[in-house]
Amino acid sequence: MYNLLGDLSIIEASSFVASPTAGLYCAQFGAEVIRVDQIGGGPDYRRWPVTNSNDSLYWENLNRAKKSVAFDLSRPEGRELLQALVRATGQLITNFPAEGFLGHELLATGRPDLVTVRIMGWSDGAPALDYTVNNAVGYPMLTGEGPEPVNHVLPAWDLLSGAYAAFAMLAAIRRREQTGEGSEVRIPLSDLAIGTVANLGGIAEVLYSSANRPRLGNTVYGLFGRDFVTKDGVRTMVVVVTPRQWSNLLTALDLEADIAVLEVATGVSFATDDGLRYMHRDALYPLFERAIGAREHAELAAKLDAAGIVYSAYRTMLDAARDDRLVANNPIFSQSDSNPSGCTYPAAGSIGTIPQMSRSDARSAPRNGEHSEEILSGRLGLPSAEIARLIDSGIVGTAT
Prior knowledge:
Largest sheet: 7 strands, mixed
Mean pLDDT: 97
Strand order of the largest sheet: 6-5-4-1-2-3-12
Distance between the termini: 27 Å
Number of strands: 12
C-alpha cells in the first residue's frame, strides 16, 4: 500500500473481476474506494473459491482496502442513495448497464464534471464474459496442440480491463483538471481483447498471411522456447530472447559443436536471429532434448542460472504459494489475519514497488455494509436519525 492517491475518492458499483480489479488497484495506491453493493452482497459475494463457511476468498482479496456500503438497490430509495453518493464524490467505476440508473448522462445532470469509467461486455451493450470474449478473438484455437480449442483458465481480459480502467480513471481526472469537464470512458472487454490482439500484431499477421498461426503447444511463437524434461523427470520451460543467452545456453549444455554441424547442414546461422531458431525448431529441439534429458534438474538449474538463461520448472499453485521467493520473502505480501473469512494467509498489497517510499501492509476487505453509516454521514451529511430510519426500513444495510 502506498498513499499516492490519498485525496481521491471513488464510488465502485461492480461485480466479478474487471471492475473490482480497477477499484482494487486505485485503493492499493491510497484512494478511498467505496464499494456499493446490494444488502447481503452482490452476485459475486460468494464466488468460489470459498471456505467451509462459504466465505469467498476471491471476494475478500479483490476488495482489500476498500470501504463497503450496502443498499437495497431493488428499491427506488436505495438507487437514489447510490446516485447521490456518486454525485457527491465525482468519480465512479462500474460495470452496471450504460442506460440504467447509473447511466453517465443521468448522473451528470447533478454533477457535470463527473468522471465515469464503465466496463462493458460488448460496445453495443450486449453481455460478455472473459471466457466468451476470449473465444471470439481466437486464442483458444491457438492454445494447446489441437485440434480442439483450449480455454485459458486465467481471466486475462478481465484483469487487463481492470488495469486499463484504473489508468483511464486517472487520465480522465487529469483532463478534468485541465478543462473542468467530466467524461465517461467505456471499456468493453471485446474491444480490450481485440485491441490487444491488434497491438501484438495479430490482426496484421492473419490478414497479411491469409492464414491462422499454427498450433504450437508449449512452443513459444517466433522464439526458441519450449518445455524439456530432465533426467529426473522435471519438466522445465527454457526460453531464449537474446543472442548472448543463445550463446550461453549452447555453452552450458555443451552443444556448440552440434549446433555448428547443423548450421553447416542448413546453411544458416542461429547466433543472432530469433526467427531462424524458430523456423528450424524441429531440427534444434532433439539436440536440446538429449542434452537436457541427460542432466538432473539441480545440475541443469545451476548451469542455467550461471549462464543467465530464463527458465522455470512447472509447478502447482500450491508449490508457488509455498515459495519463499514468490511469497514469504516478497515485499508485496504481508500476513493478513483480519479477513472477513477469519482465515490467516499472506495478502498482496500494491504490486508496484516504490523504493523511495515505505510500503504499508495490505489492508483487509470490508464486510458487506461495514461503512454504510460512516459514508452516509460523511459524504451525504445525513443525520443519525435519518440513517437509523434507512437502516430500520431495510434500505441501508450494516455489517453484523
